[in-house]
Structures are given as C-alpha cells and as structure tokens.
Design a protein that fits this description.
Elements (H helix, E strand, L loop, with lengths): L16 E4 L6 E3 L5 H11 L1 H4 L4 H23 L6 H5 L14 H15 E3 L1 H12 L3 E6 L5 H11 L7 E4 H4 L7 H9 L7 E4 L2 H10 L3 E4 L5 H17 L11 H11 L5 H28 L6 E7 L3 H11 L3 E5 L2 H7 L5 H7 L4 E3 H8 L4 H8 L5 E3 H7 L6 H22 L8 E6 L5 H13 L4 E8 L13 E6 L6 H9 L2 H7 L6 E5 L2 E4 L6 H28 L7 H17 L3 H7 L3 E3 L7 E3 L5 H9 L1 H5 L8 H8 L1 H11 L5 H4 L1 E13 L4 E11 L4 E8 L4 E6 L1 H4 L2 E12 L2 H6 L4 E2 L6 E3 L1 E4 L2 E4 L5 E5 L7 E10 L6
Parallel strand pairs: 1-4, 1-6, 4-5, 6-7, 8-9, 8-12, 12-13, 13-14
Antiparallel strand pairs: 2-3, 10-11, 15-16, 17-18, 19-20, 19-22, 20-21, 21-29, 22-28, 23-24, 23-27, 23-29, 25-28, 26-27
Helix pairs in contact: 1-3, 1-5, 11-25, 12-24, 13-14, 13-24, 13-25, 14-24, 15-20, 15-21, 16-19, 29-30
C-alpha cells in the first residue's frame, strides 16, 4: 500500500475508482461539529487543569487561529490549505500559560482527541469493502489539516488493517477539492473520471468539486437541513439554560440521532418528530429509569417499576420494548390518589383549589355523593359552574369531614384491589419505582399516605423526567425521588418555564384513553375522552416515531461505538436542551403540526384548553408589556408556542426571560413626552387629557388610557400625527376591573376589532398607516362598561422619528 504524493509515478493504464471523503463520511465523530474535537483537546491538553472553566475561550481561539493561518497561507502561497502545526503557530500560547515549545503538545492533544472521538461509519465501510472485493481501486481524498501520515494512522485506528490504493490530504498538496486536488488525483493515479465515483458530505467540495472534474458524485449529507437547524437551536438553548456546562461534547447523542434518521424511511411529520426529537428524550429518560431501579435494588429487595398513567404511557411502551422485564402500567392520577388518601378534608380542599372550573355533575362523579348544601352552592353560580378556588374555600362549610373520610375509605379499597391486579407480585414487592413525567410527586405522596393508612410497607421511589426538587423535602424517610432533569441540571427558574409549557409533552406522551375516575371489580373506570380523534391519531404517530428511535438507537449505538447515556449528568443536560428546544423554540412545521392540539385538563372539567391562542400574546404585550406577557397564566397551555407563532425572535425572548436573562431596564418601558388625547362624552362634550407615551425594549410605543364608568366616554381620539406620524398599529386592547391597578394587571385583555377603529385623515394599508399633512387621528370606540374601570392600551411601532 502506498500513500499518494506529488511524486507518485503515473499508472500506465487508465482505470476507474471509488474515492471517499474522510471526515463526516467514512469517519464520524462522537460530537455534532468539529469544535467538539477542540473542546476535547482542551480537556486532554492539561490546560483544563491550569486554566479551568475556559473551554469556550480555548475553542474560539483555536477556531480563530485556523482562520488566521489560512489567511496567511492564502496571502503567501495563493491557497488557504494549512497543516495543523501552522494553525497552532497562530494560537495565543501565553494567554493559557504556555509557550511556543508547547505547540507539538497541543497538536498531539488534538490528534488524541480525534482518535478518541472518531469511529468508522459502518455504512461507508461496507460500501468501501464491497468496492474493494469487486476489484475497484479505492481510497480517500480529504480536505484536512492532518497530513497523510496522521490521516492513515487515524483510519487504521478506527478500522485496524484497513488498506487503500491512494490517500490524498489537501494540506500535503496545498490545494483543496474545490481547487485542484481532484485534478491531481486523476492525473497521478491515471483515473478515468467518467467511470469513477466520489462519496462525500460537502455540497461544494465533494459534490460540485467532483462534478467539475467529470467524477460522478454520491452525496452523503451530515444531516437534513431541518435536523441541522434543530441541532443549532438545541446548542443555543444548552448554552443558555445549562449553567455554563461544556456544550460541544455529548458522548455521541446527536451523532446517534443523525445516523438513526439517516437509516429511517421517510414517514409522516408526526413520526419524524417522534423519531428525531421526542424519541431521543424518552430513550434517555428510559436509561435514567433503569438506573433508578438499580439504585434501589439490593439484597432482600423485590423491585417493580410502575409507570403512572396516562402521561407515563409512552415511557412504559419504550420500557417494554427495550427491557422486556416485568413492569406495570398503573392508571392513577392526582385526583384519585388525593381523594383516596384523605383522612381529613384538607387533601380534597388542596385538590379542588387547583381546578379551573367545576360543576355539580363533575363533583358528583368525583365523590359519588351530592350533599344538598353542595348542590345549593353550585345553583348560586351562572350556569351552575364555579371556580375550584371558590368551591375549596366553601367546602368545609358544605360537607361533614366524616363524609369525606368515609368516601375516601371506599375509593382506597377499590384502588388497592386494582393495584394488586395491575402490579405483578404487589404483595411481595418491597420497593415500587414510580415513573412519570413529573413534577412534584403528588401521586407518590398520596400513595404513601394510602399505604400508611392500610399498613402497607412498600417503599416508593419516584423517577421523574422533570422534578420540582423543592417539593420533595417532605417525603417519608424510607422513600426517595429523583428527577432526570433536576434543579442541578437547569435552574429552578428554567424548570418552571419548561413545566409552564409541558402540557404539549403530556398530550403527545399520554394514552388514547380517558383519565381514570374510579375502579370497579379491579377494572379501571375512565372519564369520557374529550380529545378529537385527529389529535389521538397525531399523538400515536409521534409515539410510533419515538418507539422506532428507541429500537434503532440500540443497534446504531452499538454499530458506531456510542454511549450517549453513560454519563448521567451529560445525558440529562442534552435531554433538557432537546426538550427545551421543542417546547420553547419550535420551528414553523412543528407549530403547524402541534399548534391546534387541545389539552385535556381532566381535573373537574371535560373542557379542552387550547395549546395556542394566535392573538393572545400580542394582546398581552399590548396591554401589559413583554415581561408581564411572559408570566401569563394558562390557558392557553403552550405559552412558548404563542410567542413562537408571533415570531421566532419573540420565542427566544421568552426563553431569555425564563432563564432570567431578560433585563427589565432593557425590555421594560421608559416614559417619553406626554401627548394630549381627546375624550368624547355621551352628552356630546369633549375634553382633553394628557397621557404618557412609553417606549418599550422592542422599540414600540405604548399608551394606556384609564377610563371610569362615571366619565361616560364613548370615543377616544388619539392624535397619531403628534407622536407617531407613520407606523404599524399592533392593536388596541381593553382590560376591566374594579380599580385601575387591577384592570392594568388583568390578563383578560380583549382586542378591539380592527374594523371598528376609525382612521381620520390617515392613509392605511393593513397594519401600516401614515398621517396626512401633519394631522390625523385614530378614533377608538368605547363600549358600555360592565365594571368601574376600563384601561385601553395602544401599541405602535413608529416608522420615523419618535418621542423622546
């Protein structure tokens, strides 16, 4: 075997050949991008000990050193190809406590990083060997700063005994594949271009470069554009949310996702989402559950894993597929467990206080009784519907605590009968691992109270995808709970932002059945499932993709020598970034796919809450400002989706807010010059009032105009020409309450219909307007007021000069 050089003797016979690109084609790295190699170089070089926690600085200086070296080479030699030593000659040694004597040590550290991270692509290796067995000439052509000697070492380290007919490294020849390297290869090797092939991942260098020289290319993309964009967004969120942890090395998690996707046939958008996003998250969570089971195992212990329905449905399916060991799918929800655990009225009061709305029939379904005083309570509300908070406050005066205790005892007996049927070997079990999406362990705590009341000594161990960790300090001493994405992975602020948007995850992970309401003869009695068939089918498609990923990941990880879940904290951080990307920064296709889903609240109501309200966030920003909009309560359930539908930049601003990185003095409001507005009264009189114009961090102007019912205002006249002669009108909203403060803080911001606004002396095209001759007003009709105070808010993006 010979390594091709410029002095290689031309072969006498013209032949055909197969050439392969090396990096990201024949060899793959256990990191998503080459800068992962640089981060590992930092760790191996010893700089990580002498200068800890500066990997980002090291990586950026390594990238800048290469850029400087290539510029210098271009100026000196007319070509930008360089060797690795030339790159490190431009590195700032002193910054990291080094001298130029350390150059070779840095080169060796980076090569050691390549040896550690690179592995042969089995798909390419099979093709390579097939061509070799067919007596084709085969070899490698690579744009690289590693010379042929090191490239050969790297290839043989990944495939011991590998041989080739030619090997070209661009740095040895001072020219890339986009320049003259292909021509040199054809000439020196005597290759017939028209009957030869080149396989590579780079559209410019490998594909267009080969075509230009008559070689037939075979494109092997690193990832689809959609998946590459997903990885970029995940990296941005990792760096934002994961507290400065190194963001380039993921033990091959993204390489695994790329290769599973490459081996998967094209399916529906729902299947694709499951296979590329949800599947990786839930497969990593499955590895966490398996570790939890091992942690609580030991001599004399019999451990069973139970997946809490309905949200644990997908996790249970993945567990069965990957492990095949005994486990249970246990349909217990917060409502059933809290009622069954009641030995006083307090658990029921706590439960009802979290219910949005409830009526008498639903209450009767929950408790199996309808006391006369409770029926009278509901009769006093419009349509017989009260808020959960109102019912919780009144309940101690409506029912005798003894009634609650008796009802709880009956439900508890039925629940335990169901558990003995659903959990294999329940009576012999010493430890039960409860797997669920999360969050505060309310079902686990209620089960503990139930077991204590019934004298059952089974220890309970929570295994949660996301955990509100400050909620677990009151666990019984013998029990335990851990979250995969814990507050040691992301901050509590970030966790609460994720959980505010987790309804989307719940709906695509849960079973197609209605929520449990009771048990009868060991059978589950369920509520009517109000979700439409189309939504159930969509969730099934996403779950099918997730299951396909989980199954393929085992094989692909083994083929590529990847261990993405071996280091729990790294796996957890990347799982958090992957999930956060879906929940916080969805792309347009995901918004179209998921935005129309409804959330089945299943707590005292059969109503479905929308995931996204298209105009909700715009109204909130107009009425209350960006920061207040970021704290909006549900519904809608998918707040980040509402921001994303407004624009991707709004979604990122929301993520910044949740990470506590949205400074109030930048994105708050600052007062500008006041402006006089006209108020027209119902009696025909008109008055002038002065209001302050505010400028926001988004460059918008906002006016808030408080009115009282006693004023009898019918129209507001806003002199646009006086403060924003040309601009974009984002909308007008009204909030109502008993006081100005309560109205201004109200989330119930109603948009004023655009066709009810009157533009006087104003040219208008959609949201854009311009005033004429320094004059022009916006006339806002004032509707009859049902409450004492109404606050009208106007948001405008000015085009031109703005108030100071």
């Amino acid at each position: 075997m010979k390594i091709a050089t410029s002095g290689t003797e031309r072969r006498a016979q013209i032949v055909s050949a197969w050439s392969f690109d090396v990096f990201d084609t024949f060899l793959l790295r256990a990191c998503a991008t080459p800068d992962g190699v640089f981060e590992r170089t930092y760790e191996l070089s010893g700089i990580s000990s002498s200068c800890p926690d500066v990997s980002t600085s090291f990586v950026q200086h390594r990238i800048q050193a290469e850029a400087r070296a290539r510029r210098t080479a271009k100026e000196a030699r007319g070509a930008g190809e360089v060797h690795i030593a030339e790159i490190y000659s431009c590195f700032p040694f002193r910054l990291f406590g080094l001298s130029r004597r350390d150059l070779n040590d840095l080169v060796e550290s980076e090569f050691a990083a390549e040896l550690e991270l690179c592995r042969a692509n089995p798909d390419m290796l099979r093709q390579y060997l097939d061509m070799k067995r067919a007596n084709h000439r085969v070899g490698f052509i690579s744009d690289t700063y590693w010379d042929s000697y090191r490239l050969a070492r790297l290839l043989r380290a990944c495939v011991p005994g590998l041989t080739w007919d030619f090997l070209y490294a661009s740095c040895d020849h001072g020219s890339s594949k986009s320049e003259t390297l292909f021509a040199r290869y054809l000439s020196e090797q005597g290759i017939d271009a028209g009957s030869s092939f080149h396989v590579g991942d780079n559209e410019k260098a490998d594909i267009r470069g080969a075509k230009r020289h008559g070689i037939r290319p075979r494109y092997y993309p690193q990832a689809t554009p959609q998946l590459a964009s997903t990885f970029q967004r995940e990296t941005a969120l990792f760096e934002l949310l994961c507290g400065g942890a190194p963001s380039r090395l993921d033990h091959g998690a993204r390489t695994l996702r790329r290769m599973v996707a490459a081996r998967s046939a094209e399916r529906s958008p729902a299947f694709h989402l499951g296979a590329t996003v949800l599947g990786p998250v839930m497969t990593a969570f499955d590895a966490f559950i398996a570790r939890r089971r091992e942690e609580v195992s030991g001599p004399g212990r019999t451990v069973v894993v139970g997946f809490l329905g309905r949200d644990g449905f997908l996790s249970h399916r993945i567990w069965q597929q990957l492990h095949g060991t005994t486990s249970a799918y246990v349909e217990i929800n917060r409502r059933v467990s809290l009622i069954a655990s009641a030995d006083t009225m307090q658990p029921l009061v706590d439960l009802l206080s979290k219910v949005f709305k409830i009526d008498a029939p639903t209450f009767g379904d929950m408790l199996k009784v309808m006391p006369a005083r409770v029926a009278a309570f509901f009769a006093g509300f419009p349509d017989g519907i009260a808020s959960g908070e109102e019912l919780a406050e009144a309940l101690p005066g409506l029912m005798n605590p003894a009634e609650i205790v008796e009802l709880a005892a009956g439900l508890r007996a039925r629940l335990l009968a169901y558990l003995r049927q659903a959990v294999p070997g329940f009576d012999d079990c010493t430890d039960l691992v409860l797997a669920d999406l999360g969050y505060s362990g309310s079902v686990q705590k209620a089960l503990r109270r139930i077991f204590n009341l019934e004298g059952i000594g089974v220890r309970l161990h929570g295994a949660y995808l996301m955990s509100l960790d400050d909620a677990f300090d009151d666990l019984a001493e013998e029990d335990s709970a851990k979250g995969f994405i814990s507050d040691l992975v992301v901050s509590p602020h970030v966790k609460r932002m994720l959980i505010r948007n987790v309804a989307l995850l719940e709906q695509i992970c849960c079973s197609a059945d209605g929520s449990v309401r009771d048990y009868d003869g060991n059978q589950v009695l369920r509520e009517i499932n109000p979700r439409p068939e189309s939504q159930i089918a969509l969730a099934a498609g996403v779950q099918a993709g997730a299951l396909a990923f989980a199954e393929a990941a085992e094989v692909v990880a083994r083929d590529f020598g990847l261990s993405p879940y071996a280091t729990p904290d790294v796996a957890a951080r990347w799982c958090a970034a992957t999930l956060a990307r879906l929940l916080l920064l969805p792309d347009d296709d995901e918004l179209a796919l998921l935005g129309e889903l409804k959330h089945d609240v299943n707590l005292g109501t059969r109503a479905l809450a929308p995931m996204i309200d298209g105009d909700f966030i715009r109204r909130q920003i107009t009425a209350r400002g960006l920061s207040a909009a970021c704290t909006a309560l549900a519904p809608p359930m998918w707040l980040a989706g509402c921001f994303a539908r407004l624009s991707p930049s709004h979604a990122y601003l929301y993520a910044l807010f949740g990470a506590n990185r949205l400074p109030a003095d930048v994105f708050g409001e600052s007062p500008c010059d006041p402006v006089q507005i006209g108020l027209f009264h119902g009696n025909g009189e008109a008055t002038l009032e002065t209001v302050t114009v505010y400028r926001t961090g988004l460059g918008e102007l906002r006016l808030r105009i408080p009115l009282s019912r006693a004023m009898g205002i019918t129209t507001i006249a806003l002199p646009l020409a006086k403060f924003a002669a040309e601009g974009l009108l984002h909308g007008v909203t009204v909030q109502s309450a008993a006081t100005v403060r309560d109205a201004a803080e109200s989330q119930d911001a109603i948009g004023i219909a655009a066709d009810s606004l009157v533009y006087a002396g104003v040219r208008r095209n959609g949201a854009h307007y311009s005033t004429e001759d320094g004059d022009g007003c916006l006339l806002i009709p004032v509707a009859p007021m049902a409450q004492e105070i109404a606050v009208y808010s106007v948001a405008i993006t000015p085009l031109g000069s703005v108030p100071r």
